[in-house]
Amino acid sequence: MMHECTCFPGFAHDVLVPQVGIITDIREETPDVKTFRVNAPGGGKLFEHLPGQCAMLCLPGVSEAMFSITSSPTNREYQEFSIKRCGELTNQLHSLQVGDEILIRGPYGNHFPVETELKGKNLLFIAGGIGLAPLRSVINYVLDNRDNYGTVDILYGSRSADDLVRRDEMETVWAKAKDVNVYMTIDRPQEGWEGHVGFVPAYLKEVGFDTNKVALLCGPPIMIKFCLQALEEMGFSKEQVYTTLELRMKCGIGKCGRCNIGTKYVCKDGPVFRFDQVDALPNEY
Amino acid sequence: MFRIQRENLPGLYAAIAAESDLFLPVKAAGKTNYALWSPECQPDLDTLKTVKSPKDVFFPQSENLYTCQRDAGKLSVTPEKHRDTPFVVLGMKACDVRAVAVLDKVFLSAPVDTYYAARREMGTIVSLACGKPEASCFCGTFGIDCAAPEGDVATWLTEDFLYWNPQSEKGTALTGKLTALLEPCGEETVAREKDGIHAICQRLPLKELSLSNWGAEAARKNFDSPIWEELYHPCLACGTCTFVCPTCQCYDIKDFDTGSGVQRYRCWDSCMYSDFTMMAAGNNRTSQMQRFRQRFMHKLAYFPANYDGMFSCVGCGRCVDKCPSHLNIVKVIKAFEKEGK
Amino acid sequence: MQEMIQRAKALLESGQVSRVLGWKKGETEFDVEPAFFDTAESLDGLFYNAFCGANLSKYLIEAGKKEGKTLVFLKPCDSYSYNQLLREHRVEREKAYIIGIGCKGKLTVNKIPFDGILSVQGADYPDYSENLTVETLYGTKHISYKEAMLERCHVCKGKEHVVYDELLGESQDTVDAERFAQVTALEAMAPEERFAFFQAELSKCIRCNACRNVCPACSCRKCVFDSTAFDSAQKANTTSFEEKMFHVIRAFHVAGRCTDCGECSRVCPQGIPLHLFNRKFIKDINTIYGDYQAGADLESKAPLTSFRTDDAEPGVGRG
Amino acid sequence: MPVNENWKPTIVAFCCNWCSYAGADLAGSSRLSYPADVKIIKVPCSCRVNPMFILRAFEKGADGVILCGCHPGDCHYSTGNYYARRRMTLLFSMLDYLGVESGRTRVEWVSAAEGVKFSETMNSFVEKVHGLGPCVRLGDLRCKK
């Protein structure tokens, strides 16, 4: 898929060559999560994407890694990435300032089937911690096309109230939207928190959703495991649950071999998988 | 069919090199590897197997992708120029030519790897039949005929002559430039040569190697087999098998700070290395058994599942010769063969 | 070999050891791989001949993490490597039961210059033959045992084990060359010639890391060349320098710890004489700081972790 | 190799914080000159310098590398420079063995009081390296502009 390079008009370049992006806003979500707003240097978006897709962010001389795009495609002005500080690259990213430039290539991977399987359905979003990042893209897409979908339930949990990413958006925008229920929980009791306390899987069972829904699940592997168990106990089938996988990626186009599990390349065939598809993969994720 | 006397081969090399770059097996410091021809080099068409495969010519062990400069906080990206001059690679064996078809599946499927595509477009393959197959060869298992290699031009080397047969447009074009050196000839000698090679192939120890337990359907079936646990122990987790392999295509992308810009380059990587899948969040293949399994499952099961049954092994036998621990794909195939019975 | 099998079976059956580390035969007598044996029946597959060159000592780091003792067969030179691992606390002595086995010089098929080798006769122990008979696809050939011998065996450190629980089998002296002759010859060359020599050899390097991974002294949990912190973590071979950097640093990191087991040279797919780096360091250490053999004992101070106040100054005696 | 008269070698000097670095300071404050092409890298002790530092300096374009530490016996950490001495002895011998011109590396012991020695050492080292010309045997081609 050759495409015209925006920095060198007329030069058809490889998908491995990035574009320059400029950071136009940085939001401190939690002590270790920041959301970066990225624009093309001349304004506007660098590329169009679909909910659930990812992009490679690169700091020259440091490294490059895949991050999910947390803003919705319906946002016409910019793209956002919510990034948790956990390694070398993310540490460096967190030290960036508004106006700094980074390299971006993408979008990569598949997306949540918002225009096909999910259309017209009741949706249940289950997220833990930074797992909200890919789902937020879908949630906003759904809310911006509200009539195409049924009820929306959002269950979001985090270690503490301080670690809830996008709490304000959740409380002031999502919770107030039509036919949307937001459930928030934190792992341990905390002063000033009047909401629910407990792990996400337990809260999921406690609320007890009906099965006339499609669930979109994203979070740490241990949470995914127990949420899936809970969903199955509640009567959900594997075909009703979607999740995203995360593996080490270098090329983003299914060639370098790093994210290969079984016959799938997570960067190209994923990151979004339905649970029956995940089950068909060898247990190496 | 054309031919040229063996003693005139240096003239042929020079004639090809006058028009374009010429890569061929060259002996240096005691080992034969593909290298750019120069008048001083020592071409070696008699060694059957180069240590490294000619994969290097189309997919170099290391190549620059782009250079990034930072000037007053502003980044700029200069992509590396694609290969735009023709070149010839001479002496590729049937297995190595087939290996290029394997690489094509990966790099030329969408999204196309343009660096590779440019080299494929610019390159002309002159293959060479295997006069003396080795005991470690098993290309026949993959339906490859080492007496009649694919490629733009196929050649056969006898005691006195190199026989030359163009097989494609590119091959005909190359031949057209070399008419002063090549004389037309009959097919008889080559036919005899082929018969001779086929007779040797009948005596190869690995000629019975069967892939009946492999292929797309093995993707799930063989994954959980306890055989992997028995097999992997001697593996040193080095990358010898990967780097001598003509079809292994995994790569890494890295930065190099030259002091006047950051070069982003890609280089071969090995799924046998412990850090291959390591990321900040952890490693999804933590044991050598898993990494070992990945390499062979990929070649013998995942690849055929993704590409119409094509195996990503061509039976060149380099890994059989080179593994420091004498572990190799043949042993893996055979171990599952026993299990299947 | 039968003696080895019987002894191993006895030790395994008596429960003294939980597993056996030895070699097993593949398709041919030169296709031998290191192997673990857990049961008495499987021990019938234990194999030992002149092609069992692999040094098993490094496998004991992993084996040491398992329950119980591992019975291991070590050749005399392997025992030096084991001793070195022992003094670096990478293995525990009580986790291994060591049978020191005899060695009459180890062979490598890479030194047999015939095409289409199918089998090699005369490499059996204890009765090997001075002349090997090599069956090939292109006829029967002959080569002397010594010609097919690994470089390290021509300059063998000696056939005495430095650590063992019991000994089995006989050894034979194989030394017919001076250990430092190659290094001395290189030193005598002009710098340009030396540079050209190393350039030619090292530019073959494919960065497969076999030399590092096979090396018993390279037992770091995380190698500096696997670190992402520098651009030393390079698998590339863009320029000739990178291999120099890699090989010099690798040799330096094992300087004073390298027992000269020669595994690096044995496994190099490109046949780079990597021992020339290690042996240069050993020669310098011997000359400047006094004779030292890594792995020979557990007590003496290693040359790079000790000093004398009157040590020579760097660069002394250079041109 | 013909040396361009205008060419100036790039020299990297690893200087121990406790002595040579102060020696360089003293040289400066005493208005003793040494070539501006000497790039000083302060290290906590000469022993901090491992062989990779030296090779890396050459890789990235240095034409000569010098290590300056406290006089033997005077190490701030009592014995660091003794270890450094053994390491550099072996490393330099190895570089020599590889065919790298031996004048490109040097170790010199310079105390905090020896501003003159520091300046003289640098001048003579630069002169020596200048005579040898650009280092081509250890540099990384990618770093050449």
Quick recap of the structure?
The complex is a heterotetramer of chains A (285), B (341), C (319) and D (145). Chain C is an alpha/beta fold. In chain C, 29% of the residues lie in helices and 14% in strands.
Description:
- The complex is a heterotetramer of chains A (285), B (341), C (319) and D (145).
- Chain A is 21% helix and 31% strand.
- Chain A is of the alpha/beta class and 285 residues long.
- In chain A, the strands form 4 sheets. A 7-stranded mixed sheet of chain A has the order 12-11-10-9-13-14-17, with helices on both faces. Chain A has a 6-stranded antiparallel sheet with strand order 6-5-8-3-4-7, covered by helices on one side.
- In chain A, a hairpin with a 2-residue loop joins strand 3 and strand 4 (33-39).
- In chain A, helix 4 (200-207) packs parallel to helix 5.
- The longest helix of chain A is centred in the middle third of the chain and has 13 residues, at 132-144.
- Chain A is globular.
- In chain C, 29% of the residues lie in helices and 14% in strands.
- In chain C, strand 3, helix 3 (76-87) and strand 4 (96-101) form a beta-alpha-beta unit.
- The model of chain C has no long low-confidence stretch (mean pLDDT 92).
- The model of chain D has no long low-confidence stretch (mean pLDDT 91).
- At the A-B interface, strand 2, strand 6, helix 1, strand 8 and strand 15 of A face strand 4, strand 5, strand 11, strand 12 and strand 13 of B.
